[in-house]
Amino acid sequence: MDATLTNDVEKASRDLVEAGYCLIECPLPAAVFEKLRGRLLEVAEQERENGSAFLYDGGNQRVFSLLNKGEEFEQNVQDPTVMLLMEEILGFGFLLSSTHANIAGPGGSRMHLHADQTFARPPWPPYPLVANSMWMLDDFTEDNGATRLVPGSHLLGRQPDYDRGEGNTETVAVCAPAGSVMVFDGRLWHQTGANTTDRPRHGILNYYCRGYVRQQQNFFSGLREDVATRATPELRRLLGYENYFSLGMTDGLP
Ligand SMILES: O=C(O)CCC(=O)C(=O)O
Questions:
Q1: Inside any domain, residue 176
Q2: Any idea what the CATH number is for the domain that residue 151 is in?
Q3: In this predicted model, what pLDDT tens digit does every residue of 173-196 receive, in sequence order?
């Protein structure tokens, strides 16, 4: 089954369980969305101009560590609708694993098919260890590199087997208007599509993990001090400053 765009969180939650992904109609006020998109485009351009940009796959660009690059991103990782869905599939005390942007540029090629929990050796438990969210900052279309995926593949509970040709499994492009957010299970097979247009496709990937899984980004050594200092209680928890049962304690104390 394919998930469809919705503003009904219960339907989104069902799609996430059954299809491995769900698609939510833009939950952000227009002004907040425009600021978020504007800041990302600004940072991406600065990094291309100052030579620090991470460019790959013939036209694509990643912009890492977004929390250090604008307050807009601090709010975005705490979006209440996404928080609700993440708690449902990752459980109490889930963490932010990383936040970065993937820009599929004109001429950028299709990414290899994969599930995000690459760090976990098989056999996988029958539930996701991580989950991702893709904020679409442009309309995502078949031609401009919309994320492609294999609906239901999360239920296979493993990576595609390239030796058996599963790297070429048929995928569907997840097309939705700018502002939409897709939440997807860490076991779902997916990839960036090829961008055959003359305009970049911007997306922000806010990636979360269970409370006992190591985060992709090391926020304790990499996060700017002012960002950590002004973090809301919710953001501090997402970063890993709170204990999870007996994990994450300081000197034997929460
Ligand atoms: O940019 C996309 O559409 C997906 C990116 C992706 O699959 C990844 O970063 O693992």
A1: yes
A2: 2.60.120.620
A3: 999 999 999 999 999 999 999 999
